[in-house]
Structures are given as structure tokens and as C-alpha cells.
Amino acid sequence: MVALPELKFTSLDEIPERISTARKAFMEHKTRDIEFRLVQLRKLYWAIKDHEEEIIEACAQDLRKPRFEAAVAESGWIMNDIVYTTRNLHKWAKDEKAPEIDLSFKFMNPKIRKDPLGCVLVIGAFNFPFQLTLGPAIGAIAAGNTVVIKPSENAPRSAAVMQKIVEASLDPSCYTIIQGGIPETQALLAERWDKIFFTGGATVGRIVAKAAAPHLTPVVLELGGINPAIVSKNANPRLVARRLLWGKLMNAGQVCTSQNYLLVDKTLVGKVVEEFKIAYKEFYPQGAKNSPDYSRIVNPGAFARLKSMLDNTNGKILMGGTMDEKELFIEPTVVQVESVDDSLCTQESFGPFIPILAVENLDEAIALANGVQSTPLGLYPFGNKADIEKVLSSTRSGGVSCNDAALHIPTLPFGGVGESGYGAYRGRSSFDVWVHRRPVTSSPSWLEAILSIRYPPYAGKLSKFQAASTLHPDFDRNGKKLTLGWLRALFTLGGGTAKAGAGRAAVLAASE
Ligand code: NAD
């Protein structure tokens, strides 16, 4: 077994000074240079690689996370993130041509620069301690920010290993780790930031947003959700069971995207439950407790919360149901419930519970799902194309996996909506979320002849200005789109196209 460092909380007195170092480094423009960012990310990659065994061991000690899950969803995930980012960074960071610009403004060479935001804060969650803490930080570094990282104290070994990795690889004047619990996080939140990226529960998310408001600090909130799986009568019960069981056994259900409850067409409930039992035996022939491939609940507090959810259910346990407090073990547990008001459905379980409610049809399922929480993080419809389209067009959610569990394409934008948060990252979005799109125009001196129409005295200029700049509607007073828009545009010199703009520019030039 590889030895792990001890987690030591950062002293409260040290926090303002550490932030001011990072802020100063930003103001000295240290992180503006793309090559500097690339070198930091590449060094981080190798430090992760060199400490991979410690990452896997820390995840095992914090959560008894299986080696497979730690290698795939923690170390492997963030290393892939870095390679993907470093490969694309020049392309993402390049100035963009401004889209749909009228010809009359084209001479000003309008473009969009991607400016770093400044000195930013990343606050991580415990369940994927490396992926969800270093993941946002990778994007922040790529975008040219200086970054303060606060890992979750609830995965203490992972937090300590993360510190070792960051300190072994990154420039300490630009990137730093603050360790601690609530007092340390509150001390961080009392400071001014250029952006805060928070992953965690909605209660703390609200605390973060409130703390950011007096400074007008933008915030990304990656929160949880009471995610439904909706199973139509046309779904394949075997796929439903195998995929949704996987969604709940990963990290023992401590996954923000895993389904919280199932709404299953009443004709399919029996078959789906049977298939859950078959899949459970296939995945864990010796039972989940004796398997090396099943995590434990993070701490006694979380265990007690989950136990009370199960103790209070009015449903019938059809599979699993065993627990061991000493080991913080909870078995994957299928429960047939009578209503969405059941204790297993009304809050996010963040544990291995699979409550199933029988519904009459898809309409009932959609109405119930929208009633429980209309903006969950994930939504998982199972059925044929028409069923899925019906669910998609009558619901909202951060993301959707059709005929599957969890959301798992690592480079797709990932984020919530409404109660599940706001802002998104991953893939290119991890860069975009950390930059300000700064429009830049440059007016050449020869343009003065045309620009002089904007200067006083205004007498006689308005009609010429309007002839040059007015866009004419291609819709009537009833909101209907007019036909033959191009003909009209030709006659009115309006319409916003490059050609129309050229016409207007000609009128303007002729009038000078
Ligand atoms: P949490 O909200 O308890 O804690 C997250 C962070 O907030 C920790 O770093 C913690 O130190 C800090 N914190 C806790 N209480 C605080 C307070 N009063 N003031 C200031 N800071 C405080 O979340 P968690 O238990 O680590 O994670 C579980 C939750 O996170 C679940 O709701 C889950 O759905 C959600 N989550 C969301 C995502 C996502 O990407 N959307 C990913 C993982 C987890």
C-alpha cells in the first residue's frame, strides 16, 4: 500500500495572503502567455501520472472507490482532460472573427478576444474528489487565470494528495490550494474573486451565490438534482435494469447525475424488477458487500441520512436493503414506492437507492417528474423514438441520456439548469466558462470621412444616417414573416445582409 500525506487545514490567517499572491501574479500578467499555461498543464499532467497510485489509494481510503472507477473517472479522466485541452488551447484562445457584422462596420476589423477573468476560486465536492476539483481548475489555468483551489474536506486523503500534486507541478505564485472545512471556505468566500466555481449541494450553492453578490462576482454552480428515469411501455427492461443499476452502483450512488427515482409504465414494472435482480447477480456474483467493485458511503453523517430515508419509506423493498454501519456499507436497493411523496423520492438520495413508481402512461410520468423537480441535473428516458421525443419536449434538465443512465461523454458541456445550478464546463466549455469574450474594434484613420456623419452639428445628417443604418422588418404587425424578403430588401436598401449593407454604405459614401 502506498503511503499518503496527512491533510492539514490552512491557517485562517494565511488565507488572505495566499489570495493576494495569486491576485498579484494575475495583475503582473504572468498567466497571459499561452505557452506559460501550456507548460503548467503539461507539468500537472505528469504530476498526476507520477502520483496515480496515490490518487487511487486516496480514493480507496476516502470512499473505498474501486480501482477501476478511480483510474477511469479520477486520474484517467483529468489526464485526458489535460491532453484534450493542451491539444486545442491555441485554437480556442485565438481571436474569433465577429459573426454577422454589417459591411459598414467590417472596416473596423471587429473580433472577439478571449480574456482571462483574473484570480478565481474553485470549490470541489467529495464524491469525485480529483475530477470535480482539478477538472474546473484545468479549464481555469488554460484560460489564463490564477487559481485558488479548495478541495472537499470530506475526502481528506484525496485533498492531501491533490495538494501534493499541485505543489509538485504548478507555479506557486499563480496556483495554490487552501485546505479546510466551513470556516476556511467562508474565509475564502469573504474575499473578492473574479469568478467562483462551486460543485456541491444546493444549500451551500446558495451560500456561495450570496457571498459572491456584494462583489458582483460571477458564479458557476454545479449542483445536484432529483433526477428521474422515465421508462415507457416500449422500453427494453433488460437494458433499463443493467444501465440504471450501473448508474447507481458507481461510487455507491454518490453521483450527482445518477437517477434518483424511476417512473415505470405499470405493464413493465414486474419485468424491470426481475431484470434488476438478474443484473445485480451478474455484476456482483458474491454480493456487493464482498465485492472489490463497490464503494462505501463517505461518512457516518451521510450514512445516517440515507438510513433514515430508507427507514421512512412506505414502499416495499424488492431487492437489497441490507446495511452495515460499521463498514458504511449500503446495498443497492430496489424499492417499489406508492407515491413520489415517499421519503426516497422527495430529496436527492446520493446513495444506492432505486425507488420505482408504477405509472399509467408517459403523460402521467412527465407530469409527476415535472412536479417533483422541474429542473433536475439529469433525465433518463427509456423507450422508442416517439416516447423519447415526447419526454424531451415536455421537460427540462441540465442534460439527458436517452436509453441510458448518468451523463458520461467527458467533452460535452456539463451543467445544471434552475435548481440544479447554472454555468457549464467540460471539453471546450471548460475554457469558455473561464474567459470574458471581449469585443475589440479598430477604426482606421481613413474611415474618418464616413464616421464624420456621427459628429455634431447633426443638421441634415439624420436621414442619411438612417438610410445607411436602418434595418427593415421582414415581418408584419401580426408577427407573420413576409415573403420575398430579398426583393423588399433590394427596394428598401434594408435587411441586414452584406449586400444590403454595401448598398447602404454606397448611399452613405455618396452623401459625404
Ligand atoms: P457540499 O455542498 O456539502 O460541499 C461542497 C463544498 O462546500 C465543500 O468543499 C465544503 O467544504 C463546502 N461547504 C460546505 N458547507 C459550507 C458552508 N456552510 N459554507 C461554505 N462552504 C461550505 O457538497 P458535497 O457533500 O461535497 O457533495 C454532494 C452534493 O454535491 C450533492 O448534492 C451532489 O449532487 C452535488 N454534486 C454536484 C455535482 C455536479 O457536477 N453538478 C458533482 C458532484 C456533486
TrEMBL record:
Domain Aldehyde dehydrogenase: start-end pairs: 13-435
Cellular component annotations (GO), alphabetically ordered: cytoplasm
GO terms, molecular function: aldehyde dehydrogenase (NAD+) activity
What Gene3D superfamilies does the record point to?
Answer: Aldehyde Dehydrogenase, Chain A, domain 1, Aldehyde Dehydrogenase, Chain A, domain 2
GO BP, sorted A to Z: aldehyde metabolic process; carotenoid biosynthetic process
* SUPFAM superfamilies listed in its UniProt record: ALDH-like
- Range of residues in the leader sequence: none
What is annotated as the active site?
E222, C256
Q: List the InterPro entries.
A: Ald_DH/histidinol_DH, Ald_DH_C, Ald_DH_N, Aldehyde_DH_dom, Aldehyde_DH_NAD(P)
Q: Which CDD domains match?
A: ALDH_F14-YMR110C
Family as reported in the entry's similarity comment:
Belongs to the aldehyde dehydrogenase family.
State the PANTHER family in the record.
ALDEHYDE DEHYDROGENASE
Could you identify this protein by its name? Aldehyde dehydrogenase
Q: Which organism is it from?
A: Penicillium bovifimosum
